[in-house]
Amino acid sequence: MGGKLIVFEGVEGCGKTTQLQRSWQWLQSLPTSCPLSKVVVTREPGGTELGLKLRQLLLQTEGKPMQDLAELLLYAADRAQHVEEVLKPHLADSALVLCDRYTDSTIAYQGYGRGLSLGLIEQLNQIATSGLESDLTLWLDVDVAQGLARAKGRSFFDRIEQAELTFHQRVQLGYGELAKAHPQRIVRVNASLDEVAVQEQIQAILWQRLPQWYEGWES
Ligand code: T5A
C-alpha cells in the first residue's frame, strides 16, 4: 500500500480531535510540490455508516449496563467495517490517513481499563484489521484529571467518560505500557500544554517522518 496511517490516541480530553484537525489543516497548507496525494480524516468508532450506529450504541448512557465482552466485540465490528470500507481503499490510493483512535484504544480501554484478556484483544485486533498497523501513533499524554476536566467542559458526558477515575487511570497506564513496548510506532506528545504548543510538537514529529516515507520530500 502506498499510503500511510497516522493515529491519534490518548485518554479522555487529551485533545486528539483538536490536534487531528489542526494537523489536517497544516498538511493541506504545505506547498503543492510536497508529494502528498491527499490527506484524509477519519475516526473510530464511527468512521462508516455502520460505525456511526455502533458508536451511538457504545456511547449512549441509557439502558442496562453493557457487558464488557459485548463492548469489546462492538468496537471490533466497527473496526472491521472501517478497515475494509475506509482505511484500505484510501491507503491503496496513497493517501495520508489521519485516524482518531485505532487498535491501541482497545488495548488501553478494554484491556487495561476493563481488565479483559490482552491476548484475546490482540487476536481480535488482528482479525478486525487483517494485520493493518498504524505507521505512526501519536500518543497525546495528559494527566487523567486534566483531560477529564477538559471533557467535562462539553455539554454531553458519554457512557465511557462517566466511568470512575480509577478506570481512566488504568487506561492511562495502558498507553504508557504500549508506548514502552512499541517505541518506533508510538511517539509521546506532551498534551498538557496549550493547543499551539501541542501542535508544534506534532508538526516536528511529522516533519521528521514525512521524508522517510515520501521520496523526494524536502524538509
Ligand atoms: N473507545 C474507543 C474504546 O473504549 N475502545 C476502542 O477501541 C475505541 C476505538 C469514544 C470513546 O470510545 C472509547 C474511548 C472513548 O471513550 P472518542 O470519540 O475518541 O471515543 O471520544 P473522546 O475520547 O471523548 O474524544 P473527544 O473527541 O471527545 O475528546 P479528545 O479528542 O480527547 O479532545 P478534544 O480535542 O475534543 O478536546 C476536548 C476539549 O478540550 C479542549 C477542547 O477545546 C475541547 O473543549 N482542548 C484543550 N484545552 C486546553 N488545552 C489544550 N491543549 C486542549 N486541547 C483541546
The tally of strands reads 5
- Give the structural class: alpha/beta
Q: What low-confidence regions span 5 or more consecutive residues with pLDDT below 50?
A: none
Q: In percent terms, what proportion of residues is strand?
A: 5-15%
Bound molecules: P1-(5'-adenosyl)P5-(5'-thymidyl)pentaphosphate
Give the biggest beta sheet: 5 strands, parallel
Spatial order of the strands in the main sheet? 2-3-1-4-5
Order of helices and strands: EHEHHEHHEHHEH
Q: How many angstroms separate the termini?
A: 23 Å
Please, what is the average pLDDT?
Answer: 93
Q: What's the tally of helices? A: 8
Q: Helix fraction?
A: 40-55%
What gyration radius follows from the Cα positions, in whole Å? 17 Å
Which overall shape is indicated by the principal axes computed on the Cα atoms? globular
Overview of the molecule:
The protein has 219 residues and is α/β, with parallel strands linked by helices. Helix content is 54%, strand content 12%. The protein contains 8 helices and 5 strands, in the order E-H-E-H-H-E-H-H-E-H-H-E-H. A 5-stranded parallel β-sheet has the order 2-3-1-4-5, with helices on both faces. Helix 1 packs across helix 8 and helix 4 crosses helix 7. It is globular, with a radius of gyration of 17 Å. The site of P1-(5'-adenosyl)P5-(5'-thymidyl)pentaphosphate (T5A) has 25 residues, from helix 1, helix 4, helix 6 and helix 8.
